[in-house]
């Protein structure tokens, strides 16, 4: 597949690295030559210096025979114009654009079509992060929750703690504890090493556990691995940007929400826009202000400014002053790896959320959705099985007959709206939606090949 990536920022660079390992012809456009040089030194790809929305530059990059264009420059408008040019001049089949401005996102159904702005898929990082936070609030104690098959089934990443009924016991007793709930533990990371467990595997405190189940059973399964946290009631949000504002809108009817914004004018505008949120003007590093607002009674502290250092430091301070849980937004991947699993409970990356969303559109095969875990180390994918027992390596075969790459596991099948937790005797049927977990995301290419339909397969 020939893919043109517009923008060599963090997302463009990560996406190029992500795709260059596969059998893809990658061209990346940016106006910063030093960024392009670094990429070309490390990966097998082509680079073009120039304006990503220029017809001349796109032609130079080989747009006339490209299969896919991904516009992730820092400008929404440049991304939109580039997709328009890609459609009008070069007839590129698939066009994806990162759109940050919520004004565009809210009008996306009207704006983005071949008749108006020909963009096939938009990726809105702020919206993705907001949705992820709302899922974590719905399931306190989870490190990450990803829904699949129209939210019918979910893969959940959670840490096991003493007090969970399954901790210290083999996985096989889970069926005794939850006789009426179908679930499967897909992977365990112990001391940073992942493996696919057996029924005899004993769950240890500190294990990072990935399990799959019907979405309505998440809390019941989580309760086996840790004492369930009490639902959050009092929430403090730091930063009145797009994410902070959208979170406050979504939460203020059901929670006690305080929003802390440093800019006086912005705080005043937010106080008019938000009906049930207490908007404060101040600095999250001001201990006196935090004490005045009874920081020790806050259940959940969310730091979502555009400044990584401010988010990290305010999160650390809030935890020291008695906050139950702190979640912070971090742009730099180096910081993300540094703080994850420490005093701060969860660090979220808009780049990782964007890459996950992009992955489902740039992969081969009928992949519906991709979710990344552990900073992209682990992937869960939803893929549709096609063909029959003659043309497919998957369809018509029992699970025990399918040879997956080591560390990959099929967790669930969704068939005609029914969630089936996969067992050795389960037979795959055409049009089944399979949800797999891969302990190594490099295995995706091998999985794609397994699911390809071939008239020559015997």
TrEMBL record:
Family annotation (Gene3D superfamilies): NAD(P)-binding Rossmann-like Domain, Regulator of K+ conductance, C-terminal domain
RCK C-terminal domain residues: 143-227, 368-453
PROSITE patterns named among the record's database cross-references: RCK_C (PS51202), RCK_N (PS51201)
Organism: Otariodibacter oris
RCK N-terminal domain: residues covered: 1-123, 232-348
This protein's GO CC annotations: plasma membrane
Coiled-coil ranges from the UniProt annotation: 248-277
Classification via NCBIfam families: PRK09496.1-1, PRK09496.1-2, PRK09496.1-4, PRK09496.3-2
One GO molecular-function entry: potassium ion transmembrane transporter activity
Protein name: Trk system potassium uptake protein TrkA
Keywords: Coiled coil, Ion transport, NAD, Potassium, Potassium transport, Repeat, Transport
């Amino acid at each position: 597949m020939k893919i043109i990536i517009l923008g060599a920022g963090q997302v463009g660079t990560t996406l190029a690295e992500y795709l260059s390992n596969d059998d893809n012809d990658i061209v990346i456009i940016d106006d910063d030559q030093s960024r392009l040089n670094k990429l070309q030194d490390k990966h097998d790809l082509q680079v073009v210096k120039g304006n990503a929305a220029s017809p001349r530059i796109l032609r130079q990059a080989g747009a006339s025979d490209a299969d896919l264009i991904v516009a992730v420059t820092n400008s929404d408008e440049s991304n939109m114009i580039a997709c328009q040019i890609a459609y009008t001049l070069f007839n590129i089949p698939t066009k994806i654009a990162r759109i940050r401005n919520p004004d565009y996102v809210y009008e996306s159904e009207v704006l983005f079509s071949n008749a108006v702005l020909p963009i096939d898929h938009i990726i809105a990082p702020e919206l993705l992060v907001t949705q992820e936070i709302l899922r974590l609030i719905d399931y306190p104690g989870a490190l990450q929750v990803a829904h699949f098959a129209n939210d019918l089934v979910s893969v959940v990443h959670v840490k096991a703690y003493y007090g969970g009924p399954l901790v210290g016991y083999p996985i096989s007793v889970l069926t005794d504890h939850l006789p009426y709930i179908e679930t499967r533990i897909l992977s365990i990371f112990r001391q940073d090493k992942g493996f696919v467990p057996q029924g005899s595997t004993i769950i240890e405190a500190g294990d990072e556990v990935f399990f799959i189940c019907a979405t309505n059973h998440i809390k019941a399964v989580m309760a086996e691995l840790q004492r369930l946290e009490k639902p959050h009631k009092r929430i403090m949000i730091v930063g009145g940007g797009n994410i902070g504002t959208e979170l406050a809108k979504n939460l203020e009817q059901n929670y006690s929400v305080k929003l802390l914004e440093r800019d006086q004018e912005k705080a005043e505008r937010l106080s008019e826009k938000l009906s049930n949120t207490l908007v404060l003007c101040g600095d999250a590093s001001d201990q006196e202000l935090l004490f005045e607002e009874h920081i020790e009674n806050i259940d959940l502290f969310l730091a979502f400014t555009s400044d990584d250092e401010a988010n990290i430091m305010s999160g650390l301070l809030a935890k020291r002053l008695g906050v139950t849980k702190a979640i912070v937004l971090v742009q730099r991947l180096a910081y993300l790896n540094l703080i994850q699993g420490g005093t701060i409970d969860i660090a979220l990356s808009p780049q990782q959320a964007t890459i996950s969303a992009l992955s489902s559109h740039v992969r081969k095969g009928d992949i519906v959705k991709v979710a990344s875990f552990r900073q992209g180390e682990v992937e869960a994918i939803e893929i549709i099985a096609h063909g029959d027992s003659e043309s497919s390596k998957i369809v018509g075969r029992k699970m025990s007959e399918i040879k997956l790459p080591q560390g990959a596991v099929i967790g669930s099948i969704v068939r005609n709206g029914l969630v089936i937790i996969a067992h050795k005797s389960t037979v795959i049927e055409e049009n089944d939606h399979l949800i797999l977990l891969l302990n190594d995301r490099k295995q995706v290419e091998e999985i794609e090949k397994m699911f390809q339909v071939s008239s020559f397969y015997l």
